[in-house]
Specification:
Radius of gyration: 31 Å
Shape: globular
Strand content: 5-15%
Largest sheet: 6 strands, mixed
Mean pLDDT: 87
Helix content: 40-55%
Low-confidence stretches: 1-24
Structural class: alpha/beta
Distance between the termini: 32 Å
Number of strands: 18
Number of helices: 35
């Protein structure tokens, strides 16, 4: 992540639109109201043109009204980013009352700030403040706003925040919803500058809500973009990019150059962070051209900064130096320390690549230790320093700097308040973890590398279950991995997918072995191809699929000598491996094996395989509290929409599952009773087994919006989804939760957390085991598998073995159901 100095601050001093009840001509009032509504709805070009025409019409007949229209014309120019034109218009404007004078001065101050003429901005605001001390003019709220803008652009974010909070209070005291929306918007933006990302998301959502209620499109799209930047800062790049692209289109449609260039910059940042500087650079150049057109010094500086980093990432050091030469005078004139630190860090990066080691160290250390540096830039400088020491052969210094970076990252993460923020945030340190793990392995410290890798795993899940605290040390104690394997009576295969090199640790009760694997990109390509093959309903064995065999050789074969036939294996997956069912990998035949294993076969034949979030979570696994063998089963829902038709065999599956429990020990919610409210009010903590038979949805954009689709509530026909975010709020102690639905495992992988969706939410609620699906499930084969599953459980098998036996029976059925498409989507996830 590169969160340097970007995104959208609402820089405009607003014209307050409370109706004026006096003797003004009705025609003028009606004309003004119409032009103002154009402004509110973000139709800035039309507002500017109409206000300008009306000002000319009233210039002789009513100069006072003409001045108000001229003021509105200038305001539309400022919101569009036409700073020079607005300043010229304001210079010749003669206001006719003090409220208008305050508005004019606040507008002028905003323009001066954007042009980095800070003394002129301060002088205009002092004049406005002297008028506001005389009376409570409605325009005085815009003076607070302009003061906040000036403070933030000078690098004083916390001072700016205080002015915006006062502006918010002012807007609410005067019941000005439009002013309130922009105050909320500015608070969100300022929170971003202070690295308070989840707070920024909350402010931005509030601004968007108020703006949509008012139909204020300009503010709504700005809030959407700021929300996108909060998601980006939290590591959710995919979600952020969608919001940026949409906001940029809206800004272009509304004719707001100032906002459009801002979203262009942010689109480029996502491309660059995701490793595509060649795609980012043209977007940055487009933003730079727009910034020069409107003569916004701040935006010129930001675009240059992004072009510098894109050039460095692409190895074009001469271009980066040329952009730095253009940036220097701008940052010097502004006096903004954060901008200066961005330039200093960039010079350090260039020196690193040019092997000017001493110069690089001095520049990066100067930036890293500066109190004004942002947390994201600080982490970047610390990683660069660690890698510099590593290249120089100063291993202790490199180790210390890596640990310092991770300590600072964990401190920042500990400040986040909710799971929506914490889930994606680890992605911001993924590169640091990867570099440090690579360093440790090549220092011959493979078990320490395993401890560091495990520290990055399942943080949000473990914290939610009370198994760890958010503020964890970046110098983890060496895991007693073998003791964990001994306690869990399993062999753990722990994976790390790295940019340069990936790793596998085979953890047995007796020893820990590590192996180097191909880079993440190479493995991911094979996984994606093989998943597509399986989802097409084909058989890897009969078709001799190359990826199925190759993935086994890469991912499993190195550890095969340490895995006893028929033993339990816990997969601690990473990245795209979370979407791979390892049971479907094709193992080679074994000459001294039984007949069924002499030929190539699915790895399912050799082991009982489960998914584990981390080694630390395996160590925390405990036996469920003794309870009656109670079952809660929900499903066979009434269709609420054509998108979710009724499942013809859902009733059959319920009947088959029920037969394995005593009637007095089961609770069934079916048909109209199968509602979200039924589950939430059933005290689900009392049940040992919970089984859903329904459609499922997996949200890619917001995994906690994944849902089990149930029957609609009679009082609220739209309330038919049991959402993941609601599931986690109701504690469980279930031995097993089974989600007999499509994509119950989820569709979105988060760094360190794996797939997040329905299965994750039930683990987070406290379930000990969860069965979820990696893809669509068959309505024909699933009832049969679930019948076999519960038959095994009631026969005394643990859920993992019962599920494996059910799959083996389908695999050996010699019909259509022997294909992995039918038995392999279901995966067992171990919880606490």
């Amino acid at each position: 992540m590169r969160l340097r100095y970007s995104n959208y601050l609402w820089v405009v001093a607003l014209v307050v639109t409370l109706p004026l009840h006096d003797a003004r001509p009705d025609a003028a009032q009606l004309a003004y109201d119409h032009a103002w509504q154009l402004f509110v709805h973000g139709q800035l070009i039309q507002c500017q043109q109409e206000a300008d025409r009306t000002a000319q019409r009233f210039r002789v007949a009513d100069p006072k009204w003409a001045a108000k229209f001229e003021l509105l014309t200038a305001q539309a120019m400022v919101w569009r980013g036409l700073n020079a034109d607005a300043l010229s218009s304001l210079a010749g404007l003669q206001t006719r009352d003090l409220n208008d004078t305050v508005q004019k001065l606040a507008l002028e101050a905003s323009v001066f700030t954007k042009l980095q003429r800070f003394p002129a901005s301060d002088a205009a605001l002092q004049q406005a403040e002297s008028i506001c001390r005389m009376a409570d003019y409605t325009a005085c709220g815009t003076v607070l706003r302009a003061r906040g803008v000036l403070a933030v652009d000078r690098g004083q974010s916390m001072l700016g925040r205080q002015f915006f909070l006062r502006d918010l209070d002012f807007s609410r005291d005067h019941r000005d919803r439009f002013l309130e929306a922009t105050a909320l918007l500015n608070l969100g933006w300022t929170a971003l500058q202070s690295d308070r990302y989840d707070e920024a998301a909350d402010w931005s959502k509030a601004a968007q809500r108020v703006a949509l209620e008012l139909g204020a499109e300009e503010i709504a799209q700005a809030a959407s973009g700021n929300l996108g930047y909060a998601y980006y800062a939290l590591g959710d790049h995919e979600r952020a990019l969608g919001l940026f692209l949409d906001a940029e289109k809206q800004a272009a449609r509304l004719g707001s150059f100032r906002v459009e260039l801002k979203w262009l910059e942010d689109i480029g940042i996502v491309y660059q962070t995701d490793g595509d500087p060649s795609r980012a650079a043209p977007v940055y150049r487009q933003a730079l051209d727009l910034a020069k057109q409107i003569d916004s010094k701040l935006d010129i500086a930001i675009a240059l900064e992004e072009l510098i980093y894109a050039a460095i990432d692409a190895g074009r050091l001469e271009d980066a130096s040329a952009y730095l030469d253009q940036l220097g005078p701008l940052t010097q004139a502004s006096g903004n320390r954060l901008h200066q630190l961005i330039g200093l860090t960039a010079r350090g990066k260039i020196a690193v690549q040019q092997r000017q080691d001493r110069q690089a160290e001095e520049q990066l250390l100067a930036a890293e230790t500066d109190p004004a540096i942002s947390i994201s830039l600080k982490l970047e400088a610390e990683q660069d320093l660690a890698q510099l020491y590593e290249v120089e052969g100063h291993a202790p210094a490199a180790d210390e700097m890596y640990r310092k970076a991770l300590t600072n990252f964990e401190s920042a993460r500990a400040q986040l308040k909710n799971e929506d923020s914490r889930l994606p945030f680890v992605a911001n340190a993924e590169s640091i973890y990867d570099s440090y793990i690579h360093f440790l392995v090549h220092q011959g410290r493979a078990e320490e590398a395993l401890a560091v890798a495990d520290q990055s795993r399942a943080q949000t899940l473990a914290e939610g279950l009370g198994l760890s605290s958010p503020a964890r040390s970046s110098d983890p104690k060496r895991l007693n991995a073998s003791a964990i394997a001994q306690s869990a009576q399993t062999t753990a295969l722990f994976y790390w997918l790295g940019k340069q090199e990936s790793y596998l640790w085979a953890v047995t009760p007796a020893k820990v072995e590590h192996f180097a694997l191909p880079p993440a990109k190479e493995i991911a390509a094979q996984v994606d191809r093989y998943r597509a093959f399986l989802l097409s309903g084909r058989d890897a064995l009969s078709e001799r699929n190359a990826d199925a065999r190759s993935l086994y050789e890469i991912l499993v074969a190195p550890a095969a000598p340490f895995i006893r036939a028929g033993s339990d294996v816990a997969i601690c997956a990473d990245g795209v491996l979370s979407k791979l069912n390892f049971e479907t990998l094709v193992a080679p035949g074994v000459d001294n094996a039984s007949d069924s294993r002499r030929e190539p076969h699915y790895w399912l034949e050799d082991a009982t395989i489960v998914s584990a979030p981390s080694l630390s979570m395996l160590a925390a696994v405990r036996t469920p509290q003794p309870s009656a063998n109670k079952l809660l089963i929900i499903g066979d829902s009434i269709s609420s929409t054509p998108d979710y038709p009724e499942l013809p065999l859902a009733g059959t599956e319920i009947r088959l599952v029920k037969q394995h429990f005593a009637p007095t020990r089961e609770t069934v919610f079916a048909r109209s009773a199968a509602t979200p409210a039924s589950y939430l009010s059933s005290n689900p903590q009392q049940y040992a087994y919970i089984h859903f038979v329904a459609h499922g949805t997996a949200s890619q954009a917001d995994p906690l919006e994944s849902a089990i689709v149930l029957s609609p509530n009679l009082r609220d026909r739209e309330s038919f989804k049991l959402y993941a975010r609601d599931i986690i709020r109701h504690p469980l102690d279930a031995r097993l939760v089974t989600i007999s639905a499509c994509y119950g495992s989820g569709a979105r992988t988060y760094s360190g957390e794996g797939l997040v969706g329905l299965s994750w939410s039930f683990l987070r609620a406290g379930a000990h085991n969860v069965i979820g699906a990696l893809w669509d499930v068959s309505d024909e084969s699933t009832p049969r598998m679930m019948n076999l599953l519960y038959k095994g459980i009631q026969g005394g098998l643990p859920p993992s073995e019962a599920l494996r036996d059910a799959k083996l029976e389908l695999l050996h059925s010699h019909g259509e159901f022997q294909k992995p498409f039918y038995w392999a989507p279901f995966q067992l996830y171990e919880g606490r």
